[in-house]
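Support case: magnesium ion complex. Customer-provided input:
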Amino acid sequence: MVHQRADSRLEWWKCCSIYQIYPRSFQDSDGDGVGDLNGLLSRVDYLAWLGVGAVWLSPVYRSPMRDFGYDISDYTDVDPLFGTLTDFDRLVAALHERDIKLILDVVPNHTSDQHPWFVESRSSRDDPKRNWYVWADPDADGGPPNNWLSRFGGSAWEWDARTEQYYYHAFLQEQPDLNWRNPAVRFAFADVLRFWLRRGVDGFRVDASAVLAEDPLLRDEPPNPDFDSKTPPPERFKRVFTDARPETMSYIEEMRAIIEEFPDRALLGEVQGGIDRIGQFYDAERPRFHLPLNFLLLDTDWDATSLAAGIDQYINAIPDDAWPVWILGSHDKPRIATRIGIEQARIAAMLLFTLPGTPIFYAGDEIGMPNSVISSEEARDQFEALVPGYGLNRDPERAPMRWDGNEKAGFTSGEPWLPLGDHVKERNVAAQLSDDRSVLSLYRQLMALRQTEPTLHSGQFQPLRSQSQVLLFERCSDDRRLLIALNTTTGSHTVALHDRGMLRLSTHLDRLDEPVASQLHLRPNEGVVMEMLTSSL
Ligand code: GLC
Ligand code: MG
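Agent response - structure generated as follows:
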């Protein structure tokens, strides 16, 4: 397992930390309660100060906002809610002036039902764009063509009364799936990518990229063996005929080839199908994604044993020369600070920035933002209404960023589109800027440490046996050996060391450069990075 490279000039996407911004919730500039590009532009100095190397921006395209921008009605324009193409160009320039890359979210699997392509496609069976979407006749009883289910509930097939066929939608019924088998669709999409690459974006995060192709025979999905009364109904069947199909892999290769027409760009992909299948989304005979996104840290039980096992499983599931990637938060998953608590969220941060591979976190994680509590009646995310009762509402992790402790948290002068949530007084940027032991300080120091310690991005990863729920591993390069020890419990623990070392950073931010001999004492919820002074543990 060697992720080490002799030269220290790694590609940017290997050594930068990536920061996901959900534009609705980052910074509002015009008082409508929804974040926008000019708001984001006013915060680029914060991003530079924080030390992130790239921003991944969730969709800002024109959209009816049924899925808050993941339902696109024009791929080559900015929605007026967020601003204009000129604002976008200014944002790219401002980020680049600060050496920050911009990764744009793109959504190739589906469009909005308002997209002119779909409007034409559904206009008649003879329309030249009919075959741009996935249309099928009813089954023998007049019902949907097969048992495929939408991830957002109910059949994935929607009846079109005028043309008397069903269209397929893996997500909302307002998000019809494009027919990627049709070369004209792939051609049009390649031009969409080129449009943004020419505007200077440094890469894409490809949304729902594993579900581009569906089985042409429309075979029924088999039952999901793990389905029980707690499983949300959309997961009743195993997605064998609609997820990670071989054709999808070749479409990803085509997208990669478009990226390669431009120097120094990166392709990130949202992939499904579980950790064991993640390896196939990297390079096969032809390159696929640079970084197929890995959500393991969000899906693993939070204890040293489960983490060690999960990390091991992931590292073994990717090809030897593949570059790992880790995600700590996203607009689709409950916030880490709520799931494991604010103390352990510090451990999670140290883990994220010391594991081998590219770290990705979500705006607000750096101040320990919690989920905002949102009742079903207040829910804006349609997922909640369509599949109620399983806690699937994604609004809690989409609450606005807190810049200060004022009533509107510095996010807007108007009414925020979602309630701000709890702990605004202490969990905001201004409060944590003036506290040198805050979560924000920790994030900043961890990113700074990664910059000054190339061993943390290119060193070999050496797992060690966990002791008393303290997760242990090393990162090693020719001349340096770093030990990372993370106490995943609320008790104190002592770890026996075979070598002496020097403590470089504690998650508590109160001890630095302390020598440690044979025993490392860790306080509750404490993690440390140590530089080892002699050769082996
Ligand atoms: C991805 C996005 C999610 C969206 C879905 C449909 O999973 O991350 O927010 O709802 O795709 O576009
Ligand atoms: Mg599809």
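Residues 499 and 536 are 7 Å apart (CA to CA).

Case will auto-close in a few days if no follow-up is received.
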